[in-house]
Specification:
about 290 residues, alpha/beta, 8-stranded mixed beta sheet, about 45% helix, about 15% strand, globular
Length: about 290
Amino acid sequence: MSSARTQLRSRLLGLPLIASLAACATLVPDSGRLVRSRDNAVVSVAEAAAELAQADVVFLGEEHDSDAAHALQLALTEALLAARGEVAVSLEMFERDAQRRLDLYLAGAIDEEFFLAGTRPWPNYREHYRPVIELAKARGLDVLAANVYRPIAKLVAGAGLDTAKGDPWAAMQVDGRPEGAYFEKFVRIMGADPAAHPTEHMQNVYAAQAVKDDTMAESIATYLARRGESAPLVVHWCGKFHSDEGLGTVERLLARRPDLRVAVVSTLSGPEAKSLDAEEKRLGAFVMLVPVP
């Protein structure tokens, strides 16, 4: 592992411990378990939050179709709010152009129907994301519509990264170079050979992924800069590919703000009683073990 990667992992996973809270007999109402990667210990939501609350940004990497993972995400967000007193929620699931209408809804200035009519909510919004939006509305929390405007990513996938330059709904700087650990992981997921010279199509599809990661990273960094010393803990909900192993959005955020303390939580579907192997432990500081949807 390179020196830079070693330093990155130390910033991600080397959070100091504070006194553990008493473990809960039942972790959340639904099935699922939280495993602390460094020692394979099953911990309560409160115990995990006690450690994660020391970070500046916590990434909650999800499997989008898992009810149990979303229940754990919400429970962790609520526990982090209790531990820190204030959090801001950042979401992959809403795009930058939706921010104004999202803010109006959170302030009670528009109703839910009008809010959803102009923000393109995901198909599973009501069961999986509405609860955290309503939590934020009830508690007066900021919510970031962090992602790139979807048609921009589609353009990039078809015609390349230049199509996103200068667009206010995309990051000002995007690293779409087809190289590095994240690119190799992306190519494997796409079913191609990481050792082969990437085709123009593969480079463009990866650039579309990169514009999402950089836009979410920039959204978080901009918010933290605007809030300054009063910045709350940011809890970012995203698909786990964007944050596993400290890659994707995580490394792009740290490139902008290397001073930040960042923690990653990942998700694995399968046997809840299993122990994490060495590769799985690298996914994040904690892993949510959930049933297969």
